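A reminder from the course coordinator: this example appears on the midterm review sheet, so study it carefully.

Given structure:
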């Protein structure tokens, strides 16, 4: 049985200046993530930005929380996901400026 192919995605984390805000999202971190699909990439993002020992040394924003948005890019294809209480939900880009 072949393992699913792993792809490298470019990931951008967007947060608002204050937790709970619904406007004013800003890109706070960019990184490449290797994953087999978007769901796996989102799980990796959540783990990296919520486990203190895994945080990149140059990361200065808050932990990932409900309302934060992640952009996953592969070439010119871009998808956006917002973290909600039930998990990640795909959204339209219009929420991110």
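Designed residues:
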């Amino acid at each position: 049985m072949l393992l699913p192919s792993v792809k490298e995605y470019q990931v951008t984390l967007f947060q608002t200046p204050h937790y709970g805000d619904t406007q004013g999202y800003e890109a706070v971190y960019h990184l490449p993530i290797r994953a087999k699909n978007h769901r796996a990439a989102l799980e990796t993002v959540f783990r990296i930005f919520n486990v203190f020992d895994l945080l990149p040394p140059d990361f200065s924003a808050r932990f990932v929380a409900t309302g934060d948005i992640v952009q996953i890019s592969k070439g010119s294809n871009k998808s956006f996901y917002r973290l909600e209480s039930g998990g990640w939900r795909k959204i339209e880009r219009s929420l991110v400026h």
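The chain has one helix and five strands. The longest helix spans residues 38-48.
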